[in-house]
Amino acid sequence: MRTTVTIDPDVAEKLHNYAHRRGLSFKKALNELILRGLSQQTLAKPERFEVHPHRGGFRPGIDANRLNQLVDELEVGDFIREARTDP
Asked: Which distant-in-sequence residues (6+ apart) come within 8 Å of 34 by Cβ?
């Protein structure tokens, strides 16, 4: 198949150098590198994402049964601060 491709000048220079070193025509070098790139892309396995579990929970001294009380105390503190700053 014949087609027109626009190649950046730096890429074209590297491709010409590659073709010269390998004793290939520009066309054969281009086809070889495109095929190599495409085959690596399809064969590459995606990186595996691993989850490392850890023991959850609260720090020592924090009572999970009193968290609602803590939230209430913080909200009251915020309310008092806001009331003092309002004119």
From this structure: none
